[in-house]
Amino acid sequence: MRSRIQKVLSSHGLASRRKIESLIIEGRIQVNGKNASLGQLISSSDKVKFDGKEIFLSKNANQQKRVLIYNKKIGEISSRKDKNHRNTIFDSLPKIKSGRWVSVGRLDINTSGLILFTNNGELSNRLMHPSSNIEREYVARINGKVDDKILKRLVNGVNLEDGFAKFTDIQEGRKGSTNQWFAMVITEGRTREVRRLWESQGLRVSRLKRVRFGNVFLPSGLKGGAWKELSQEDVLSIEHL
């Protein structure tokens, strides 16, 4: 069965349909040795390449959606490849027969915790889109004195260099002599947003970990650098976030 190239490549985790359209226009996708065209019909028998690398297509264009939970370690980068040969979040993932894994968002090199991966580009794009307003929960160790006025400002919102930002909830945790732990929730995925919110109050985040994305929690027994595949029932619940 032949289907439109944007739909097929998106279902194989390459990117969202809109992004694939841009890649086609840029001439980065080839079908059987020729540049692909928008709306072109393809099947698993066609030889498709992206930036010169072949994409192995499943015989089922609407392949089953898969989602992995991954516990990112500090020091890993969120890119697929790194020119400095540092470890990436993709290094430990299981091999996939067709398509590729796509990460749902990113975490900076010094942040650990929950990252979701899927083999479906449309699902990844929808979960990351700002309009989704999906909650992300973090725990952080904050160096410095945090008073009620600071917490109120962070919940009411502050202006960062890329716009207004806030935590929708903050809960206090255990306290040390020079630092304190907090759990906080945001509904966006802007770069270093959690760190920048605390820094706006003259405070430094010394440890940061993501523990929840929507209704998916980081399993307590999942070690750093390890992954766990969600059941189809859980995948269905994520599709309806």
Number of domains: 3
Largest pleated sheet: 9 strands, mixed
Q: Give me the Rg, rounded.
A: 20 Å
So what's the oligomer here?
A: single chain
Number of H/I helices: 6
- Assign a percent range to the helix content: 10-25%
Shape: elongated
CATH H-level superfamily title of the largest domain: Pseudouridine synthase I, catalytic domain, N-terminal subdomain
- Would you identify the regions where 5 or more consecutive residues have pLDDT less than 50? none
Description of the molecule:
It is a single chain. The radius of gyration is 20 Å and the shape is elongated. The relative contact order is 0.16. Strands 7, 8, 9, 10, 13, 14, 15, 16 and 17 form a 9-stranded mixed sheet that branches. A 4-stranded antiparallel sheet has the order 3-2-5-6, with no helix packed on it. The two termini are 31 Å apart. The chain has 3 domains: 53 residues, Roll (Structural Genomics Hypothetical 15.5 Kd Protein In mrcA-pckA Intergenic Region, Chain A); 89 residues, 2-Layer Sandwich (Alpha-Beta Plaits), CATH 3.30.70.580; 79 residues, 2-Layer Sandwich (Pseudouridine synthase). The longest helix is centred in the N-terminal third of the chain and has 9 residues. A hairpin with a 2-residue loop joins strand 15 and strand 16. Helix 1 packs across helix 2. The chain has 6 helices and 17 strands. It is of the alpha+beta class.
